[in-house]
Design a protein that fits this description.
Elements (H helix, E strand, L loop, with lengths): L1 E6 L22 H8 L9 E3 L3 H10 L4 E2 L16 H4 L1 H9 L12 H17 L4 E6 L1 H10 L5 H5 L8 E5 L8
Parallel strand pairs: 1-4, 2-3, 2-4
Antiparallel strand pairs: 1-5
Helix pairs in contact: 1-2, 5-6
Length: 179
C-alpha cells in the first residue's frame, strides 16, 4: 500500500505548548498549502483525514469529499493539553521517556494506544484492497505509519520529524507490523 502522509499546516498555538486532541485553528491558509501539495498526489486518490480542524480544512481543499476518521487524530495528552511543556514537570516527562509506549498522561492515551488505533485504521484499508491513500493527519500518526508500522524500533520512530504542511510517501507491506 502506498501512503501519502500529509501533515497539517502550522496551527495557531504558541511555541512550547503541548497540544494533541485540542481542536486548533490554523495559522497558515489551508488553501495555499493544498495548492502546493495537490500536484504531488495521484489524481483521484482517496483522502482520509483527522476530523480536527487543522487537518479537516486542508483535506477539504485537497479533495471534494474527504473521509474523516477519529483514529487519525493526534495523541490525546489529557491534562497536559494546552499546557506549556516546561510546566508539565520534569518527573512526569521522565516517566514518559522511561516507558514511551506504555505511559499515559493523566486523562490521555499512551503511544501504544495511538499506534494500535492507527494500525487498526490501516488494516481496514488493506482488507478493503486499497492500493494508495492520502492521509491528512498529525506528526504522531505519521510517526506510527512511517516508523512503527514499518517495524522500526520505538526510539527510531519516536525521533522522526515532519514539517507542517509537507507530504511524505511511505510504502507498507500487505501486513503492517507493530513495534
Amino acid at each position: 500500500m502506498q501512503l501519502y502522509l500529509i501533515r497539517h499546516p502550522r496551527p495557531a498555538v504558541a511555541e512550547g505548548i503541548c497540544y494533541g486532541r485540542t481542536d486548533l485553528a490554523l495559522a497558515e491558509a489551508a488553501a495555499e498549502c493544498a495548492a502546493r501539495l495537490r500536484s504531488l498526489l495521484p489524481a483521484e486518490i482517496a483522502v482520509y483525514s483527522s476530523p480536527l480542524r487543522r487537518c479537516r480544512e486542508l483535506a477539504e481543499h485537497l479533495h471534494p469529499a474527504p473521509q474523516f476518521d477519529e483514529r487519525l487524530m493526534e495523541m490525546h495528552f489529557g491534562a497536559w493539553e494546552m499546557r506549556p511543556w516546561n510546566a508539565i514537570g520534569r518527573a512526569a516527562l521522565d516517566d514518559w521517556m522511561a516507558d514511551p509506549l506504555g505511559f499515559v498522561p493523566p486523562g490521555g492515551e499512551s503511544a501504544a494506544m495511538l499506534r494500535d488505533r492507527v494500525a487498526a485504521f490501516i488494516a481496514e484499508r488493506q482488507r478493503e484492497g486499497c492500493a494508495a491513500l492520502a492521509l491528512v493527519t498529525h506528526a504522531g500518526v505519521m510517526k506510527v505509519v512511517a516508523g512503527a508500522l514499518r517495524g522500526r524500533p520505538t526510539a527510531e520512530w519516536f525521533a522522526m520529524s515532519f514539517d507542517y504542511g509537507t507530504l511524505t510517501t511511505v510504502r507498507l507491506s500487505h501486513r503492517a507490523r507493530r513495534r
